[in-house]
């Protein structure tokens, strides 16, 4: 089972696109949670959510 799909095009230079499969997206909720923690922690340290 692969985490991504590959699609090759017949253009020069060669172009390749990668897409996550449904299986490859399974850790997405965990990544979103960690990203939100980082935003909240940055606000604690620096008093703002964005740089």
Structural class comes to alpha+beta
Instruction: Report on the biggest sheet.
Output: 2 strands, antiparallel
Order of helices and strands: EEH
On the 0-100 scale, what is the average pLDDT? Answer: 85
In order across it, which strands form the biggest sheet? Answer: 1-2
- Name the shape in a single word: elongated
Q: What is the helix fraction of residues, given as a range?
A: 25-40%
Q: Oligomeric form of this entry?
A: single chain
| Count of helix runs | 1
Give the strand tally.
2
- In whole angstroms, how far apart are the ends? 39 Å
Number of self-contained structural domains:
1
Nearest-angstrom radius of gyration?
18 Å
Q: Low-confidence stretches at least 5 residues in length (pLDDT < 50)?
A: none
Q: What is the percentage of strand-forming residues?
A: 15-25%
Describe this structure in words.
It is a single chain. This protein is an alpha+beta fold and 51 residues long. It has one domain (4-46). It is built from one helix and two strands. The protein is elongated and about 50 Å long. It starts with a strand and ends in a 5-residue tail after the last helix. The model has no long low-confidence stretch (mean pLDDT 85).
Secondary structure topology:
Blueprint: E1 4-9, E2 15-20, H1 28-46
Antiparallel strand pairs: 1-2
Task: Offer a quick outline of the entry.
The protein has 51 residues and is an alpha+beta fold. The chain is built from one helix and two strands. The mean pLDDT is 85.
